[in-house]
Design brief:
The protein has helices spanning 3-78, 82-95, 119-122, 127-132, 174-235, 252-320, 324-328, 369-389, 395-409, 503-506, 517-527, 533-548; strands spanning 99-106, 111-114, 139-144, 149-159, 162-172, 333-339, 347-354, 357-365, 423-431, 446-452, 456-460, 463-467, 488-491, 497-501, 557-563. The protein is an alpha+beta fold and 569 residues long. It has a five-stranded antiparallel sheet with strand order 2-1-5-4-3. The radius of gyration is 60 Å and the shape is elongated.
């Protein structure tokens, strides 16, 4: 016998026995309690009826005794034979075994005779005596007196036409109480005997049922043990087990056994077919694996070509960006952050230098990756054409001309254009306000800014200020080609710091999906305003990476910061 068989046998058998035993115990207990309670109520009712009959008999005997006695007492009183009346009351009370005592009271409340009290105490009438004087007919009252139940029969005494007094006969119920107590003890004895008989009968019945359940559970669990063993052997691919199942009953267990047999045959056929299929499949997998390896080699070669092309595209795009060392030749205190999300991106920085100053622009084209990089090529070509060929220097005019250039280049000024791409931009020009009176110096620079969705941040005298950009985009289908961007002129001092950034920095999300935001960006700039620009660059990058944690960068990031401490053109 295996451990699994023991688990199945005892779990099924004893659960079934336990449930049935609990149900039968509850049923027998309820029936026994109901029977005993019913029998106890019947005996209590019989005792109650018996008590009522005894009291009624006592009252009838009392009435048949007190009425003749009261007539005799009335006659003696009418003839002024008071001693005879008193003697009759005393003799009658003494001769009647049920009488506890008798009291004769006149209308003034004076006790003429009390068979239990002395003459001294007898003169003091009680509340019951005074109450009895109010009765006008034979009155029966039951009450307790000195912790003893009594019945009082009060008979008014009338001499001539006036009420003379009352005769009270008090009967004790001591004998009745004793009889009631005896009856109750008899009832309790009968109930105990009934309980013992019921428990004995129930125990015998439960024993027989337990034996019957034990045998039934054993017969019921045995086929299930065979089926469990059969299932275990089937799991080990011993299909012969399904052909030798000993269960042949026609109940649910028999149906289950037949299903096991059928399942065993099906599994045997299935495993035979599966082995054949596995052999064929191994051959196909080997061949397919060889083909996949060849395809993978081709994909790797193609991917390498693509990545090489994209890396070369990055080199081309990087060549469009200004050389930081070249910029530092005329803008020494500055930093540049250019971090494409992919190998190439849609952000770029543009600079152009003139005799009286230079132009610096931060551009955020639609998209990122290769599509964004293509846009940067178009925008960079447009800026060179506008600034160098057309000679435009004014930032607002540069944005307006760039808007027209992108729309027309991509045919986004027509209804049949398939694309809808454009850019956001921030453009500044730095020049001397009076270029014909002498050379440019560090104290007479003028900065002119115009923006399309990208603002200009600057710090002056320890306070950070923001010049908001126009809300118009550049180059999109919806962009207005007639829109005149606004120039903002700022006189520059050597203490001022300027910053331009694409929205890729402030749009970073942390692991809780909260944005870095413009407020945090401004606080970061203000806190580090006294730090050299090269160090500010590292602080900004560290703050961005620390904020996003393990989150991927969602967009290209470009930030430019500079101060006109030493500027030579």
């Amino acid at each position: 016998m295996t451990d699994n068989e023991m688990i199945v046998r005892w779990s099924i058998k004893w659960k079934l026995i336990g449930i049935m035993t609990a149900l039968m115990t509850a049923l027998v207990t309820i029936l026994t309690w109901t029977q005993i309670s019913s029998q106890q109520r019947i005996l209590e009712n019989e005792l109650g009826k018996r008590i009522v009959l005894i009291k009624e008999n006592l009252i009838e005997r009392g009435k048949s005794f007190v009425i003749p006695l009261s007539r005799q007492v009335e006659n003696d009183i009418a003839s002024f034979n008071f001693s005879g009346a008193i003697q009759k009351v005393q003799d009658s009370a003494g001769s009647n075994a049920d009488t506890k005592y008798a009291v004769l009271i006149n209308a003034a409340g004076n006790i003429m005779v009390h068979t239990l009290k002395s003459e001294k105490i007898m003169k003091q009438s009680s509340g019951r005596d005074i109450e009895a004087l109010r009765y006008r007919k034979t009155t029966v009252t039951e009450y307790r007196e000195a912790d003893e139940a009594v019945i009082e029969l009060a008979e008014p005494l009338q001499v001539s036409t006036e009420q003379w007094g009352v005769l009270r006969l008090v009967y004790t119920l001591k004998h009745l109480d004793k009889e009631i107590e005896s009856s109750r003890k008899q009832i309790e004895k009968e109930i105990r005997i009934m309980i013992v008989r019921s428990v004995s009968t129930s125990a015998a019945f439960m024993s027989v049922c337990f034996v019957f359940l034990f045998i039934s559970a054993t017969r019921f669990s045995k086929p299930l043990i065979h089926l469990a063993d059969c299932a275990k052997r089937l799991s080990r691919r011993d299909f012969a087990a399904a052909e030798n199942i000993p269960v042949r009953s026609s109940d649910e267990v028999g149906v289950l056994a037949a299903s096991f047999s059928e399942m065993g045959r099906d599994l045997k056929e299935f495993y035979i077919k599966l082995e054949e299929y596995n052999k064929t499949l191994e051959q196909k997998v080997g061949k397919r694996t060889e083909e996949l390896n060849k395809s993978l080699e081709k994909v790797e070669k193609a991917n390498k070509k693509i990545m090489d092309s994209i890396r070369y595209a990055r080199m081309i795009q990087s060549s469009l960006l200004p050389d930081p060392e070249n910029i530092r030749s005329f803008l020494s205190d500055s930093f540049f952050i250019w971090l494409p999300r992919d190998i190439v991106g849609g952000d770029f920085i543009f600079t152009d230098r003139f005799e009286d100053g230079f132009v610096l622009a931060v551009i955020d084209c639609t998209g990122h990756g290769v599509p964004g990089a293509f846009m940067t090529m178009i925008v960079c070509a447009g800026l060179k054409n506008i600034i160098r060929d057309e000679g435009q220097r004014d930032p607002a005019m540069i944005l307006k001309r760039l808007n027209f250039f992108v729309k027309t280049t991509l045919h986004q000024d027509t209804d049949y254009a398939r694309s809808d791409d454009g850019l956001d931009a921030a453009v500044v020009r730095i020049q001397s306000p009076v270029t014909d009176t002498g050379p440019l110096t560090r104290d007479n620079w003028l900065l002119t800014y115009a923006g399309a969705k990208l603002p200009l941040f600057y710090i002056d005298k320890g306070k950070l200020k923001v010049i908001k950009a126009d809300r118009e985009n550049v180059g999109y289908k919806r962009s207005d080609p007639a829109h005149d961007f606004r120039d903002h002129a700022i006189p520059v001092s050597t203490e001022m710091s300027f910053y331009m950034a694409t929205d890729g920095f402030t749009d970073h999300l942390n692991e809780e999906n909260r944005r870095f935001g413009t407020r945090r960006f401004k606080e970061l700039l203000l806190e580090n305003r006294e730090i050299p620009f090269e160090n500010q660059k590292d602080i900004l990058i560290d703050a961005m990476n620390s904020f996003r944690g393990n989150k991927e960068r969602p967009d290209d990031v470009t930030v430019v910061g500079f101060r006109l401490v030493k500027c030579e053109v």
